[in-house]
Amino acid sequence: MSHAPVHRAASEVLSPALPYDMRPAAAVASRNVTLQQFVNSATELKDHGRVSACRAAFGENYGAVRELAGSIKQHTLDHLDHYLERYIDAATAAGVRVHFAADAAEANAICVGIAKANNCRLCVKSKSMVTEETRLVPALEAIGVETLETDLGEFILQLDGDAPSHIVTPMIHKDRAAVARAFVRELGARYTEDPPTLTAIAREHMRKKFRKADQGISGANFLIAETGSLVLCTNEGNADLSVGVPRIHVALVGIEKVIPRMEHLSVFLKLLARSATSQALTVYTSIITGPRKSGEPDGPEEMHVILLDNGRTEILREETRELLRCIRCGACLNACPVYRKVGGGHAYGAVYSGPIGAAITPLLKGLANYPDLPHASSLCGACFEACPVKIDIPKQLIRLRAAMVERRLAGVGERGVMRVWGAILKRPWAYRVAARVGRAVQRSMGEGIASSDPFADRGWISSAPGPLAGWTDVRDLPTPTSRSFREWWAARRTEDRRGEERS
Amino acid sequence: MRVALFITCLTDAYFPRTGIAVVKVLEHLGQTVEFPAAQTCCGQPMFNNGFTAEARELARRMVDVFEPFEAVVTPSGSCAAMIREHFAHLFDGEQLMAARAASLAARTFEFSEFLTKVLRVNLRELGVHWEGDVTAHSACHLRGLGLTGVSEGLLGEIQGVKLTPLGKAEQCCGFGGTFAVKYPQISGGMVGEKVECIQATGCSTVVCNEAGCGMNLAGACRRAGAQVRFISLAEIMAEGLGLMERQEGGQ
What we know:
The complex is a heterodimer.
Chain A: H1 10-14, H2 22-31, H3 33-58, H4 62-78, H5 80-93, E1 97-101, H6 104-117, E2 122-125, H7 129-134, H8 136-142, E3 146-149, H9 152-160, H10 176-187, H11 195-212, E4 215-218, E5 222-224, E6 229-234, H12 238-244, E7 248-254, E8 258-259, H13 262-277, E9 284-288, E10 302-308, H14 312-315, H15 331-335, H16 337-341, H17 354-365, H18 382-386, H19 393-406, H20 412-425, H21 428-445, E11 460-461, H22 469-474, E12 477-478, H23 485-502
Chain B: E1 2-5, H1 9-14, H2 16-28, E2 32-34, H3 44-48, H4 52-66, E3 71-74, H5 77-90, H6 95-106, E4 108-110, H7 111-118, H8 123-126, E5 129-136, H9 140-144, H10 150-156, E6 159-164, H11 179-182, H12 184-201, E7 205-207, H13 211-223, E8 229-231, H14 233-240
Helix pairs in contact in B: 2-14, 4-6, 5-6, 12-13
């Protein structure tokens, strides 16, 4: 039996002490070989799967499809008030009770209020990042409503008191053995690592709960303004049972999830599953328009949609608006080398992780609270390339860095270095002097020169002082060569001139 | 064509031989190469770290210095991307500067891009001959400029080059400028993975066309005890055309 990594409790992961320091978590994860393997192999598989699925489906039109999807979302966000009003009107006409929550506390209070008013005892819930954002489950359990996560991954995390580490595949950091142990401990099951058997155990446990539950909770992948419909894309069928069997369905949905018309849905359905899990379509795609109508055999008697702001209108300002296009496919997480190296989502100290999390968490929860997130990126652009709605995440991270400089949240040392360096670079003579001094200093510390060519004779520093120590902690630092390109050019020019004078 | 070389700070100091090779290859291809001595830095370190005002001043200098030339060629994809993707936006609200920056952006090329898009050379027809087993690192900014596979394609045209693809080619080496210094654990993990991929190819020569990546990869290979030498496409071409003496060994 292998030993899975030890995890911090969900509350500690999702709501850490602020300001959040990412480095210790990243350091711990970087030493955890098992965790690295889980996250590396799962994300690489998904990333390659996405590329082949999108290539196969769209060929050379992939770029155009992404452009189209991005522009539909952007258009909707540019006129969000209009489309939200249309959605509210259409949903209300279909019998949905639409609520508006300004923040997490309000959203949870509305949901708790509905549970109380209906004397709910047992709630079944499908996977929803927004409910993680508001910490809805603890709020319901605090009033004595047993709330069961019915997505298999989330169910296992709930048994372990653990937090999701990926937007789409929440238990990317766990293996079968961890599931087996949780089932033995919490469900009294016999120990087995066989996935079909484990799934059957979970299924049997959940079925009993589905039959008894009086409230179902979901998020939504899309809201359709034209029809007032709510779209759920899942692979396990648990969402359909969660929202279709109990008497009451409550959906908690971010305001950015609305799209104008039903015809736009096809663009997103084509991209979402391919980007997330390289499937052509999720196994279940449900379009729900209101509660059970008279004469219909099933469906909930009451349907509530809680539209959640919780910082989104702040992101809606023009320069960050594109971030709200996100359809939560997780492609940027799978493509991100940093996400892989920090052992998945927990290191981000918030519900949304990976590149998109690094860009939105500081906006949702305060830049001063998450100073590492904008900087813990090599700006390699893999996320931008993977994003099906073309969110320029590197640009947004740079924008956050600039906001930190503006608000004086950047370190005093860094500010000083950048100002001085900038001043030097504005003056060619100062640049030449600084380059020479820098070269002399670095070469005095270097060793291991392996070439006699003055344009290739770099030495190596194994332990650099000051701000460069981080570099030499993990690799050697080359020194400049004994002569620069600039000097070669100047010497060549001199030779040329002499040649001209002689001839 | 009257071409200005933008050497970039890192190539100037750390990989001058690449700059020399670029000059020799371009001259061999009939270009008039000039090196405006007033050039310094494109401002990428400031821009990437959010020091927009400092970056804007350096961008202004760059536009002044390089404006007179028909084309600007640089051996760095990331510095080319800085000029191409960010300069014009730095002058939002300064119409004239924004237009001048956009014009410069349209005339700025990374070296392999200039060869393929502007000069449209075929290295086989050109008669480049260079014997050796190599693997090649793809810098992220080349992908950003739509140049994925371009330098590998050029290497494939060189007679005698045996190219072994590098594993995890699409994954960043972990340089990222100040990222490498601020987050050594993460950056170190990323470059460590690259070193393993380099070692797995069995090649002792890595072609790398980005000074930052080269410093990172070479430094990590040296720390890991991997006997690998780094060379740029321009150097291989200059050596393969007999414009520079072939250099063996070293890192």
